[in-house]
Amino acid sequence: MQDFMLESTVNNYVLEVREYSAPCWPNPDSPIRNSFDLVNAVREHSRHTDRPTVIHDPLGGATSGLFCALSTLSSQLEEEGAVDVYQVARMTNLMRPGVFNDVEQYQYLYHAVLSLVSSQEDQRALQSPETNGSVPLGQTNIAESLESLM
User: Fold this and answer.
1) From CA 99, how far away is CA 22, in angstroms rounded?
2) Using CA atoms, how far apart are residues 21 and 97, in angstroms rounded to an integer?
3) 2-149: which CATH number, 3.40.50.2300, 3.90.190.10, 3.40.50.720, 3.30.450.20?
4) What is the pLDDT of residues 50-78, one digit of tens each?
């Protein structure tokens, strides 16, 4: 994480920007739900500042687009209790044409949301007095759940 001061020599304007560096994000070797760790850290910081959030990556926007879509989906789930992965991906692609150019990127969004919802359900089950601190297994099939999202 680094803070920068950007200055406009023409308009005599100064802007403070915080950069989060995550060159290996999302990490293919870690659970997909860990992708939300960076999303949540940036969202938490953004709540306490009036500075703009700038997202960039060295790959021409694919990783940034994925980050923005996951951030939007996480917020949507938090605020509405439901998500529209297709619509978020579509809007992200409209704002930055070509950002999602293969099916794996779309699938990643669906898998990430499914993982986020599953981990939230597990957390609620752990906190529920009816389950006595255990998470019931085998009640849903992840493949079936993923198909219901698509």
Assistant:
1) 18
2) 24
3) 3.90.190.10
4) 887 777 787 777 888 899 999 999 999 88
